[in-house]
Every structure is written in structure tokens, then in C-alpha cells.
Specification:
mainly alpha
Length: 108
């Protein structure tokens, strides 16, 4: 019969060093899961917030500009020129805001 390298009898419980190692490994995995879980939730929140702001800008600014331009056109009887100018102005401001949001979220 071959000699047992650990000096333990067959069928006994694991070595205390292995139990300690298993416990430390489980603790480290738990800490890592908590750390990465929070980081991913935070990054998802930042992405969601940036996405909603981009959507609001790309829809709201041109629409608001066109609405204000339409009202001014009706008041000045200059249809459709002020409305078109305000629509393009709103779109230009929306594109500028999207570029600004993308710069802000890259640093986070």
C-alpha cells in the first residue's frame, strides 16, 4: 500500500487548511460579486439617464422649435419660413446637446 502524503487517515474530514482556503475563496467571490454588481448597476443607470436625455433632446427640441415657429408664422403671416428656421435651429441644438452628453458619459 502506498504511503499517504498528507498523513491523514482515509475517510477523515478535509484538512483544516483546505477548509480555511475554501472559506476565504467564498468570501472573496461574494465581495467580488457585490463589487461588480454595484458597478454594473451604476453604469446601467448612467447609460439609461443619458439615453433618455438624448431621446428628449432629439424629439423635444425640433418639435418645440417647430411649434413656436408655426405660432410666429401664424402671427406674422410668413408661413412656413419661421417654422422651418426654428425646426432646423432646434435640431442643431439637439445635435450639440447629444455631442455634449456623449462627452460627459465617456468620462464616467
Amino acid at each position: 500500500m502506498a504511503a499517504d502524503e498528507t498523513g491523514e487517515q482515509p475517510g477523515t474530514s478535509q484538512d483544516a487548511r483546505l477548509e480555511s482556503l475554501d472559506e476565504r475563496l467564498r468570501r472573496a467571490e461574494r465581495v467580488e460579486a457585490e463589487r461588480t454588481g454595484r458597478a454594473s448597476a451604476e453604469s446601467q443607470r448612467v447609460i439609461r439617464t443619458a439615453g433618455m436625455r438624448i431621446l428628449q433632446d432629439l424629439v423635444g427640441l425640433p418639435f418645440g422649435g417647430a411649434l413656436i415657429g408655426w405660432l410666429v408664422d401664424r402671427w406674422l403671416h410668413t408661413a412656413p419660413w419661421v417654422m422651418l428656421a426654428m425646426l432646423f435651429l432646434g435640431f442643431g441644438i439637439a445635435v450639440r446637446n447629444v455631442m455634449q452628453v456623449s462627452k460627459d458619459t465617456q468620462g464616467k
